[in-house]
TrEMBL record:
Keywords: Membrane, Transmembrane, Transmembrane helix. PANTHER family: TRANSMEMBRANE PROTEIN-RELATED (PTHR34473:SF3), UPF0699 TRANSMEMBRANE PROTEIN YDBS (PTHR34473). InterPro entries: YdbS-like_PH. This is PH domain-containing protein. The chain crosses the membrane at residues 12-36, 42-66. Residues 68-143 form the YdbS-like PH domain. Pfam families: bPH_2.
């Protein structure tokens, strides 16, 4: 079976970079507090700060680009195909006949960037299939298309 053809929105890279940067905020705050409370170990503080800048820089700068290269999605008349991940990659194929619900989610950063995530819940123990970081209009079109295809199918996905 061919790989899914469609990419998330180009703004996905910004979304993933912002989310990664937000993960580092508590660590930076902890290092600042540590530096204020324990100013006698300047060498350790500098080493920790350098390590944080390097690792956080890689996380914020490289991971979003890598994820964008990997993430793909596609909808056919018979299935929803996704490929996601960056370190561990996952490929999911959900038959249209197994779709139970189709939801759209827009978090605060998603709304700021005009993005949305479409979640396709299926009658599967593997859980829902997520199509992340779509332009809001594309997400709405995707939900409408999946709803129409699943409605034509007429099978009960339970």
């Amino acid at each position: 079976m061919a790989e899914p053809a469609w990419r998330p929105s180009p703004k996905a890279r910004a979304l993933w970079a912002i989310n990664a940067a937000l993960m580092w905020v508590p660590i930076v705050i902890a290092q600042v507090v540590w530096g204020v409370l324990d100013s006698g170990r300047i060498g350790w503080h500098i080493a920790a700060a350098v390590a944080t800048v390097v690792v956080a820089g890689l996380h914020v700068g490289v991971v979003p680009l890598w994820r964008y290269r990997v993430h793909r999605w596609e909808i056919s008349d018979t299935a929803v195909h996704t490929r996601s991940g960056w370190f561990t990659q996952e490929r999911r194929i959900a038959p249209i006949s197994r779709i139970q619900t189709v939801d759209t989610e827009r978090g605060p950063i998603d709304r700021l960037l005009g993005l949305a995530t479409v979640t396709v819940t299926t009658a599967s123990s593997a859980g829902a299939v997520e199509i992340t970081a779509l332009d809001a209009a594309v997400a709405d079109e995707t939900v409408a298309r999946l709803t129409a295809i699943a409605g034509r199918n007429g099978a009960d996905a339970t």
